[in-house]
Design goal:
elongated
Length: 219
Amino acid sequence: MKPSRHLVSSFCRLPITKASGLTLVELLVALVIAGTLIAAAGSLMLSHMLNVRQIERGQRNREDANRFNYLLSVEASESSSIAYGVALSGCSPDTGTSQIALTVPKRVGQYADTANNSTIYYYNSEGDLKRCGPPVTRNGVLSDGSLSNAVGVVSRRTTIAVIDSSGSCGVASDQRTVVYSLDFAESGDGRYAQCQIARAKTVFVCNPPVGSGGAVGDC
């Protein structure tokens, strides 16, 4: 049986569809949009990471400052006098001068005897804040009977500056009081914890009359 002319004619007139897809221009536009979105997202993530690091760094600086302030306050309160710019002694391998030197009487012997004192130095070295002096035992007491000083870093990338004039601090550094500020290299805005104050304890030394048989420091 032969197909009719009508069927053949209808078959020949069927539409021919083209394969769908992206042109080169459309592909380039899509790549540009995707790149812009990725760059924006990356910039936001980087900014967030930097903010988090800055907050963590500020918190770390505050903790370091609080620990140092407590340490210096305690050791200064045990000292009989405070000096500045004293040459380091027994702090090998470090040399130079200290920012702060505390004279701390030993627990035994005559209080006013200069040979019965220990010296604690605080100084800047290679961008770090260091301490040199008698080691501290586990219970927080100075081991003033030690034959050698202990040299250690108190706070890394930190320096201390003594404030000589009262200025806005309201008090000046002297033999009984030290006014200081801490500079953190990573703080980004210079000095931190300005106008911190540590004081030496008040001491009364009695000199007995000549011939009384008493020693210097007895009352």
